[in-house]
Amino acid sequence: MTPGRNVALGAAGLAAFLALGEAVPRLGLVKEAYFPPTSRIASALGDELSDDAFWHALGDTLTGWALGLAIAVCAGVAAGVVVSVVPYLRAVTASTIEFLRPIPSVALIPLAVLLYGTELPSVLLLVVYASFWQVLIQTLYGVQDVDPVAEETARSYGLGTWARVRHVLWPTALPYVMTGVRLAAAVALILAITAELVIGAPGLGQQIAVAQTSQAVPEMYALIVVAGLLGLIINVGARTVERWALAWHQSVRGEVAV
């Protein structure tokens, strides 16, 4: 299927979805007070775009997302490489990782509020904790996938530990790492908005909560649409960065060729 046809089908699907959102409340299938038509949501979105408070909230959300993601990626990659290359460290930390990884980040909200209140560090705590595991686990999988023959060949040529990491381990692990970064980018946005919504930290989540409590339903849906668009943009951006970083890899070259 050609890219042009994919775009056309996507646009048609979006148009049908918007038309359905307009028709359902107009026909009385749901109350407009709870689910306003698409046109009212679009009007509310236009009002939000002209409001300085909206842009400040968007900036707060993106700040928490970007800082948390950057910390999680750096920490996850560094920890994954160290745990993998240091003898016995993987076995020593395996049970601890498996214990901590399934803990939901939202369960740490009381701790975050107790430590940092409703400020940015609370958001960062939740974002970093949730995103860190995505990167760490993928890094560990990537290192495990290193070809033993290539590893032994590097040793036979006298390459030191960090030279083997750079020339053997990293090229093998990078596709896994980029997958972890892409997953972490989406998780970081979810946790940033969740923290703002529950804790009351400045950002889109707080704006959504305020709109909901003040019965400004069209504005609430407009902000939810913005959150969805933000997630879409982040996902597309992460995939673009992934293709650029892995332009040499067979999976990306095959995808481009197709």
From TrEMBL:
Q: Does the keyword Transmembrane helix apply?
A: yes
Q: For this UniProt record, give its keywords in alphabetical order, as a comma-separated list.
A: Cell membrane, Membrane, Transmembrane, Transmembrane helix, Transport
Q: Which CDD domains match?
A: TM_PBP2 (cd06261)
Question: InterPro entries recorded for this chain?
Answer: MetI-like (IPR000515)
Q: What Pfam families has UniProt attached to this entry? A: BPD_transp_1
Q: How does it sit in the membrane?
A: Multi-pass membrane protein
* Regions that span the bilayer: 65-86, 176-199, 220-238
Localization per Swiss-Prot or TrEMBL = Cell membrane
Q: Which domain of life is it from?
A: Bacteria
Q: Signal peptide location in the record?
A: none
Q: Which organism is it from?
A: Streptomyces osmaniensis
Name-wise, this protein is ABC transporter permease
UniProt similarity note: Belongs to the binding-protein-dependent transport system permease family.
